[in-house]
Amino acid sequence: MQLPKAFIDTLNRTFDSIEVQAMLAAIEEPPITSIRINKHKWNQPVPLQNIPWNPQGFWLPRRPFFTGDPLFHAGAYYVQEASSMILGSIVAQLKLMTHEPIRVLDLCGAPGGKSTDVLNQLQSEDLLVTNEVIRARSSILSENITKWGTPNVVVTNNDPADFNKLGGFFDLMLIDAPCSGEGLFRKDPRAIDEWSEEGVMHCSARQKRIIADAWESLREGGFLIYSTCTYNLHENEEVLEWLNSNADVSSVTLKIPSHYHISERNGIKLYKALPHRMQGEGFSFFAVRKEQKTTTSKIKKIRKVSRSKWNIPGLDGALYQEGEHIYKWCTEHEQDVFLLNSMLKCMKKGVHVGVEKKNKWVPSHELAMFANTPTPFSRVDIDGVQAIKFLRKEPFELEMQGKGYFLVVYRGIALGWINYLGNRFNNLYPTNWRIMTSKLIEKPTEVLV
After folding, report:
1. How many angstroms separate the Cα of 297 from the Cα of each of 130, 167, 235?
2. Which of 31, 74, 174, 363 could bridge across to 413 with cysteines, CB 3.0–4.6 Å?
3. Are 266 and 244 in contact (CB under 8 A)?
4. Which of helix, strand or coil describes residue 89?
5. Contacts (Cβ under 8 Å, ≥6 apart) of 179
C-alpha cells in the first residue's frame, strides 16, 4: 500500500515516531469486519466476539456475503466499523446527564450507521432527527432507518443552517463531520487516492462551518458530540480550538476505554482510536456541553396533520393522515413532528403505516419493517431459499389458506408483504430494494445464527 508522503508527515506532526510506525504497520493489515445488532428486532444469543465498548457490537472472523443474508435486509443488524460504535456509549452516558425525554439531532446522518446506534440507546419517548443534505444520500438514510423499524425518528433533507429556525430544540447534537477519510485507508484504498493536504484544509473549514450553521438549534446546557474518521490536527484539535474560541463550552466527563490516544485543549479531551491499539479503524471524537444562551427563534404557525379514521388492531396510539398516507409515531412526539414537518423537508416521519385506496387500507413496506408489527396480520414463515427468492422478487411456491395480505417472516423477523389471491400471490417487496446481484445464491448467508 503506497501512502502519500504528505500524509505520513502529518502523522509525524501529530504522534511520536513509535506510534507512527505502529500505525503504518497496522494500516497494511487486512481490515476487520464488524456488525451491530438491532436490539429492537434480535434478542437471541449471537455466536460472535462482542465489542467491549458496545453491547450490541460484534466482530466477525471474516467478511461474509451480506447481500445473501435475509436478516441483513430485514434490519436485524447493521454493518458498521467497530471504532465508531463508541458513539453509542457516549450517547448513553450523556443521556443520563440530561432531562427526559431527549431530542437528538444527527446532523450528517447518512448512510445511517450512527443513527441506528443512537436509536439503540434511546427510549420510545425520546426523539431522533437524522439529516442528510445530499438528496440521494438522504434516500439511503431513509431506507436504513426504515429497516431499523422504530417510530421515534424523523429523517430530513436539509442544509445545517435550516435547523437554526428551531432555536434550542435539541438536547444533543451529533456531528459526524465529512472528512478526509484518513482512518479508512485500510478499509477503502480509494480514500488514499482522494487524499490531499488541500483536501484536509478544505474539510477543516467545512467542519467549522457545519458546527456554526446549526449551533443555535442546540439548547443551553445541551451536548455536542463531534467526530471524524481522521487522525490529523486540522480536522480534530484545531476544530476543538476554534469551537473553544467562538462558543462558550465546557468539558464533559466520559468513561472511555483506556487504549484511546488522548489530547487536550483548554481542559477538553479529544479521543482518537488508532488501528494498532484496537480492532478497528481510525476514529476521533470529542464531546462538550453548551453553556451559552440560545436565541429562541420565532416559529410560524404549525400546520397540523389530521388524525386518521382508521383503527388498526395492534397499533397502539393515534394514527395520523396526510392525503391518502397514514402514519404512526409516539403520541409524546405529536407536537414535535408537527413542528418539524412544517419547517423542514421531511423524508420520513415515524412509521408510514399504509395508504387509503377506495375506502380500503393497504399496508406499506414500512409497517412490515416496524419492529412491533401488529400481531393481527396473518403470517407466513418461509425458509432461506424462499427468502432469497422473495427478496429478488422471483417466483416461488407457497402453500397457504385464505386470501389477503400476509406478512412474510424469516427466522421470526418480517421481510415484507404478499397479497395472496387464492391461487397465486403478488410479491409486494419494494422493487428498488430487491437483490440485484447476478451472483448465484444457492443458500442464504447466516451471520447471526
Report:
1. 21, 5, 30
2. 74
3. yes
4. helix
5. 203, 207, 228, 229, 230, 235
Q: pLDDT tens-digit profile of 118-164?
A: 999 999 899 999 999 999 999 999 999 999 999 999 999 999 999 99
Distance, in Å, from the CA atom of 356 to the CA atom of 219, rounded to the nearest integer, reads 39
Q: Collapsing DSSP states into helix, strand and coil, what is residue 84?
A: helix
β-sheet with 77-79: strand ranges across: 49-50, 57-59, 34-37, 77-79
Grid cell for residue 117: 446506534
- pTM of the shown model: 0.96
210 φψ region: left (φ > 0), alpha (ψ -120 to 50), beta (else): alpha
Residues near 177 by beta carbon (within 8 Å), at least 6 away in sequence: 108, 203, 206, 207, 210, 226, 227, 228, 235, 239
Query: What's the pLDDT tens digit per position in 10-31?
Result: 999 999 999 999 999 999 999 9
Question: How many whole angstroms separate alpha carbon 338 and alpha carbon 326?
Answer: 14
- What residue has cell string 435547523? 163
Q: What is the 3-state secondary structure (H, E, C) of 121-164?
A: HCCCCCEEEEECCCHHHHHHHHHHHHHHCCCCEEEECCCHHHHH
> What DSSP assignment string belongs to 282-341?
-EEEEEEEE-S--PPPPPPPP-PPEEPS---TT--S-EEEETTEEEE--GGGHHHHHHHH
Q: Which amino acid is at 319?
A: L
For 275, the grid coordinates are: 488501528
Identify the DSSP state of 51: P
Distance in angstroms (rounded) separating the CA atoms of residues 196 and 183: 14
> What is d(CA 207, CA 175) in angstroms, rounded to the nearest whole number?
9
- Distance (Å, whole) CA 59 – CA 50: 6
Amino acid letter, 293: K
Which residues are tagged catalytic? 229
